[in-house]
Amino acid sequence: MTLPLHALIESGDADAPILVLLHGRGSSEDDLFPLGRMLHPTATIVAPRAPFPGAPWGYGPGWAWYRFVGGTTPEPESFAAGQAQLDAFLAALPGHLGMPAAPLILGGFSQGGTSSLAWALQHPGQASKILVFSGFVADHPSVAVTPTTVGATPIWWGHGTADPAIPFAHAEAGWAQLAAAGAALTTGRYEGMGHTIGRQTLADAAEFVQPLA
C-alpha cells in the first residue's frame, strides 16, 4: 500500500504505538524525525512531508501544511486541503505498516502542532495522545473545541513565553479553550524560550508519552 505523503519511517516493536511527527512551516520530514526515538524508545516513528511547497508562499525551500494568514487564522482552502491529505495519510498508515491495531500518537511543531490538534478535534478518539509543540487552535470552520471534540484524548501542549512566531498568548488562549471543554490537558510553560523545542520541553513531552495510557 502506497502512502499519499512521502514519509521517513523507523520501525519499532510490534506491540508499541505509532508515533507520527509533523514538521513546521518551511521545514521537512527530516526536522522532527530524530526526536522520535527520544520521545519513545520502542514506537514506530513516522515523519511525513507536508503536501505543499513552501516557496510560493514565501516559506523557503521546505514544505507547509497550509498557508498562514495571520494571528491564529490559516488560509481556509489550503488548511482544509492539508487536513484532508493528513487524514488520508493517517488512514492508510496502519495498513501500510502492517499494524492495524496499534495506538496512534500524533504531534508536531508549529504548523505541525496546529495541524495535529486540528485533526484530533475533527476525529475524536482516533488518536491515543496528542503533542503540540508551539502551535495554536486554528480559527477555521472545521475546528471546534467542545466536550465532544476533545473527547478523552490526552493532550500535551508546550510553548515558550518568548516565542516570536506564535505568541505565548495564543497558547494561553488555546489552553483556556481546551480546559473549558473538559480536555485532558497537560501544559508546559517555558520561560524565555523562543520558537523551538528545548531540552526540557522534549523531556516533558517524553514523560507524557510514556507509558501509553
Describe the secondary-structure layout:
Layout: E1 7-10, E2 18-22, H1 36-39, E3 44-48, E4 52-53, E5 63-64, E6 68-70, E7 73-74, H2 76-97, E8 104-109, H3 111-122, E9 129-133, H4 147-150, E10 155-160, H5 168-180, E11 185-190, H6 199-209
Parallel strand pairs: 2-3, 2-8, 8-9, 9-10, 10-11
Antiparallel strand pairs: 1-3, 4-5, 6-7
Question: How do you describe this structure in short?
Answer:
The protein is an alpha/beta fold and 213 residues long.
Descriptive report:
The protein has helices at 36-39, 76-97, 111-122, 147-150, 168-180, 199-209, and strands spanning 7-10, 18-22, 44-48, 52-53, 63-64, 68-70, 73-74, 104-109, 129-133, 155-160, 185-190. The protein has a single domain, classed as Alpha/Beta hydrolase fold, catalytic domain (Rossmann fold). By secondary structure, it is of the alpha/beta class. The strands form three sheets. The protein has a seven-stranded mixed β-sheet with strand order 1-3-2-8-9-10-11, sandwiched between helices. A two-stranded antiparallel ribbon has the order 4-5. 44% of the residues are buried. 31% of the residues lie in helices and 22% in strands. It is globular.
